[in-house]
Write a structure and sequence with these properties.
With about 425 residues, this protein is of the alpha+beta class. About 60% of the residues lie in helices and about 10% in strands. It contains 14 helices and seven strands. Helix 2 runs antiparallel to helix 3, helix 3 packs antiparallel against helix 4 and helix 6 packs antiparallel against helix 7. It is elongated. The N terminus is likely disordered.
Length: about 425
């Protein structure tokens, strides 16, 4: 089949316009293309460059990911700051233990590196949190085994006096891990960590009742014993809750799609297109974007006669065929909807008046060039108009609707433009 072509006169010459030759909208950065913190910097360096991420509201999944990234960045910053404070505190002690100087320094360096990595790759939160958890648990297990063995083999040393104040850290590490990572391995990792960290300390305290029943010993035993067990047991509960929330979000998205899609053609319905069109117009005004917007509204000619003669099943087939043919021509970033009954509306971005007329003419020829069985040739009447600065959506739709009815009065199967 020959590709649909139309011609227009330009400077006295016939030039052919195909869908591939239509003007494209200006490139625009989106939130998925760049790090959120870069949006403001880019807007300062390149004021003329449209940056949608600065003005466009993102969907719930993106906003949730952005929130998690902010929280993870804050958490790593607090860890680095806390490690630095601990290192500073121990460095001014008269005779600090070497472990008290080495462990905070290594912890600060590792988490600072992870913080830089997370800022550079904001989508890798899970990998970063696994590394934070692993390094934290390794340092805690080394501390637990070292000080427990030191106290066990030295009668002059008591564990409750030498063990650093780390009993609450495993609880915080487990809570942070299952808050950021959704994996069945979280429970296993937490259980292994509990055994590795708590085993030497709890074993020592079990054989030294005088230290166990001291205030510090009781606090350590409760934190590393029932506390870590409870935190580990809550991970499956948290995973079930996450699955329930994910199911609710999926159901909400499905209901929203049903509310904004035409069930027959799977195009946007009037409600869905009005919602997207309103956002587009708002962005056009708030961002001072000069890109032109054109609207095409067309109505299938004699559609009532098709329904009366062939039945509604054939009428539905005609609507689906019309939708598919137009979708094959329009670009993916154009808005296209079943406006109501046998009316369809397309919103074309980044086109001038002549190009908009060429697009509408291409659609008209595409609909009429192939017969639809058993109806035969199906035509449509087109109205087109462009957006001007003072236009509201209602005024724009009214104008293009008037142009479409003018096309019907002039004999149907034609394109009529109405200027703003």
């Amino acid at each position: 089949m020959l590709k649909s072509l139309i011609f227009r006169r330009l400077s006295g010459k016939q030039t052919y316009v195909t869908p591939e030759a239509w003007p494209r909208p200006r490139p625009c950065l989106t939130l998925s293309d760049m790090h959120p913190y870069a949006c403001y910097i880019i807007s300062l360096l390149y004021p003329s460059l449209p940056v949608k991420a600065c003005t466009t509201t993102v969907d719930s999944s993106k906003s949730h990911s952005y929130f998690l990234h902010r929280i993870a960045t804050l958490l790593l910053s607090l860890i680095v700051f806390s490690s630095g404070v601990v290192l500073m505190f121990h460095s001014i002690e008269p005779s600090p233990h070497p472990f008290d100087l080495i462990a905070p320094f290594i912890n600060a360096v590792i988490n600072l590196g992870l913080l830089v990595y997370l800022v550079r790759f904001p989508k890798r939160i899970a990998q970063v949190m696994w590394l934070v958890f692993t390094t934290t648990m390794i340092s805690l297990s080394i501390a637990g085994w070292y000080f427990s063995l030191q106290a066990a083999f030295s009668e002059e040393v008591q564990l409750v006096e030498t063990l650093p104040p780390i009993s609450a850290v495993p609880l915080l590490a487990i809570a942070a891990l299952f808050s950021f990572v959704r994996s069945r391995w979280v429970t296993i990792a937490a259980a292994i960590s509990w055994v590795v960290i708590a085993f030497p300390v709890l074993t020592y305290l079990a054989f030294h009742s005088d230290e166990l029943f001291s205030p510090r010993g009781t606090e350590i035993a409760l934190a590393l014993g029932p506390g870590m067990m409870l935190a580990t047991a809550l991970i499956p509960v948290h995973r079930v809750r996450d699955r329930q929330i994910a199911t609710l979000e999926s159901d909400r998205a499905a209901m929203q799609a049903l509310a904004e899609r035409d069930p027959l053609t799977q195009l946007y319905n009037r409600r869905g297109l009005e919602k997207l069109f309103a956002k587009m117009l708002e962005h056009q005004r708030t961002s001072n974007n000069e890109a032109s917007i054109g609207v095409i509204l067309f109505d299938i000619d004699h559609f009532k006669a098709i329904n009366d003669k062939y039945g509604h099943n054939v009428g539905d087939k005609v609507l689906c065929q019309v939708a598919q043919r137009c979708q094959a021509i329009l670009r993916k970033d154009d808005l296209f909807a079943r406006w109501g009954g046998e009316e369809f509306l397309a919103v074309i971005r980044g086109v001038e008046k002549d190009s908009l007329a060429a697009i509408a003419e291409t659609l008209r020829l595409k609909l009429a060039e192939e017969c639809i069985s058993p109806v035969g040739k199906v035509t449509a009447s087109f109205g087109i108009t462009g957006l001007c600065k003072q236009d509201s959506m209602q005024a724009l739709i009214h104008r293009v609707d008037s142009a479409m009815y003018t096309a019907k009065r002039q004999g149907r199967n034609r394109v009529v433009a109405k200027n703003p």
